[in-house]
Amino acid sequence: MDLQGKKVLVFGSGISGEAAAGLLAERGAQVVLYDGNEKLDRAAVAGRVPGGTQIVLGEFPEALLDGLDLVVMSPGVPTDLPVVVRMREKSIPVWGEIELAYACAKGDVLAITGTNGKTTTTTLLGEIMRGAADSVFVVGNIGTPYTGIASDTREDSVTVAEVSSFQLETVHSFRPKVSAILNITPDHLNRHHTMEAYIAAKERIAENQTEDDYCVLNYEDEVLREFGRDIRPQVLYFSSRRKLKRGVWMDGDRIVCGIGEETVICTTGELQILGVHNYENVMAAVAMAGAYGVPADVIRRVVTSFKGVEHRIEFVAEKNGVAFYNDSKGTNPDAAIRGIRAMNRPTVLIGGGYDKDSAYDEWIRAFDGRVKKLVLIGATREKIAETARKLGFTDIVMADSFEEAFEKCTEYAEPGDAVLLSPACASWGMFKNYEERGDKFKELVEQL
């Protein structure tokens, strides 16, 4: 779409919305930035977007729909809002921020989605690609909006993108050269309403791919194994449990790449990140890089030096004989299960937060003698406590603030124990995001 002179509404401010407004203005569009939060500081928002951007806050004015050529949705805005339905009824194209960026950018895209492991895999693949290409960008949910760098891309650029189900709801032409779905477990059901809708959103990552492209899937995820049987791109599976005819797999402690000639990339003992979930993340990144043609020696060098990402089972410090781990990125039960399974000491666990309509039974079952005390905070604390008691876990303490929860952890943890922040819930309500929550935890640890 030629954006010159077009009237485009960016629905939702924040980092993605403001980056989208900047890209649109650069392409000559007339930009209207709308946000339903009337308490936002209009002057502050105006200072972060190009001059000439019309800013509308509060209740949505119907007159705003008149003459619109395009709407760009920020990821956090639900696409089933009545006003968005009316936009579609008026045949106004509704794109997401990632679709806009893709339409404006150059080069190849390697895109990663899944319930858990996206940030680790995206970060690792970005490092691998930096070892193999001159122009590499790492974007998406990982922190840098795709729209923020689209104009900097070249024909030889490689963009490694972490994409969420929210972003995939609004793709139209988005076509990665290599895509990956790492796993699918229940999450964001307050947004998608049904598991079927959540799965369908994730699977859209491969919607526009052709026989010349690749899709990397987790063979041990039943939904993804079935999905891979009838899609257009070439499918590469990875598996932590069995040898595959083609793909990447674990053979004992060896990670083997079977794309072309079979090659041992490394052993798990050579990796600096722990746990089967991280070995799966490594295999996914290896498969994507291998599909793109990155030499095995480059892949090997990067994966064995990779130290992981902040806020994901991150060792903070040992104080008074107690090890403190920041797993603030454990924002759903499945992610938090991985955090618990990585613990090799009796653990005092901080859980709870914003309610995404998750069920916590499997998370509680994963405690399995590892968790000695559960300290609960946030909107979900009663729901989690009820589930825990039903399953026979009763070592529960309630806290009214994050600081109080931390204080109780230090009270109950003994030398040789671990304190783990792995809440199984989003941070909203107490913090802006999981990063702020993790940073607060680390600050409290450092103050001990």
Task: Give keywords.
single chain, 448 residues, alpha/beta, Rossmann fold, Protein-Tyrosine Phosphatase, Chain A, 6-stranded mixed beta sheet, 16 helices, globular
| Number of discrete domains | 3
Query: What's the mean pLDDT score?
Result: 93
Helices and strands: which structural class? alpha/beta
Which of globular, elongated, flat, extended, rod-shaped describes the shape?
A: globular
Instruction: Give start-end ranges of low-pLDDT stretches.
Output: none
With strands numbered from the N-terminus, the spatial order across the biggest sheet is: 7-8-6-9-10-11-12-13-14
Beta content: 15-25%
Q: Would you state the CATH class of the largest domain?
A: Alpha Beta
| Estimated radius of gyration | 22 Å
Tell me about the biggest sheet? 9 strands, mixed
* CATH topology (level 3) name of the largest domain: UDP-N-acetylmuramoyl-L-alanine:D-glutamate ligase
At CATH level 2, the architecture of the largest domain is 3-Layer(aba) Sandwich
Q: Please identify which CATH superfamily of the largest domain we are dealing with.
A: Mur-like, catalytic domain
- Which percent range fits the helix content? 25-40%
Number of continuous helical runs: 16
Number of strands: 20
Molecular structure report:
- It is globular and about 65 Å long.
- The relative contact order is 0.09.
- The protein has 16 helices and 20 strands.
- The mean pLDDT is 93.
- With 448 residues, it is of the alpha/beta class.
- It has three domains: 7-92, NAD(P)-binding Rossmann-like Domain (Rossmann fold); 99-305, Mur-like, catalytic domain (UDP-N-acetylmuramoyl-L-alanine:D-glutamate ligase, 3-Layer(aba) Sandwich), CATH 3.40.1190.10; 314-447, Mur ligase, C-terminal domain (Protein-Tyrosine Phosphatase, Chain A, Alpha-Beta Complex), CATH 3.90.190.
- The strands form three sheets. Strands 7-8-6-9-10-11-12-13-14 form a nine-stranded mixed sheet. A six-stranded mixed sheet has the order 15-16-20-17-18-19, with helices on both faces. A five-stranded parallel sheet has the order 3-2-1-4-5.
- The longest helix has 17 residues, at 276-292.
